[in-house]
Design brief:
By secondary structure, the chain is α/β, with parallel strands linked by helices. Keywords: Leucine-rich repeat, Repeat.
Amino acid sequence: MALSTQTASTSFPSTESAPRWKHDVFLSFRGADTRKEKLKRWRAALNTVASLSGWDSKNYECERELITVIVKCVWNKVHPTITLSDSKDKGNMGTEAIKGPKSLPDSLRILKWGWYPSRFLPGSYRPNLLTELDMKNSKLVRLWDGKQDLPYLKSINLHGSKNLTKTPDLTSIPNLEALCLSYCTGSVRINPATV
């Protein structure tokens, strides 16, 4: 049997504008506070997820830090990204980084690589799923030969790429919102098809 609103509201002081139980989702119908119980279940679930994923929740100072690490890991698996920092700041990264990669995964959505060491992207790389290309201060001469179908690419940042000589054909990039070629001091030729 349901209580009417009038009956329920008479049991509360008249100073409250609305009965508290209508808005507090943590109170059961008996008036017991279930927050502690839910918090215990949340922590148990978090520890289970952490242990299944290979993390030890004891290695983290707070739950927020552990959740952040788990979310970043899941995000990186769903949205693969390559991000490499400036090799000058990180010390010697090995000969692989100096020569540049032999291949890149075609599933990349974001490619951020400051100071990219090679003059060209790998010939086998097909960036059809790419949404962001950020290669500041790279040694790139050009991004790729010919026309690439890039329906998802929204941003190209080649700021400071002093060796850049030719821009790609931008007609095949319908959703491009930003193109940064600032401080590309080489003789950059704009692809005539894009003008």
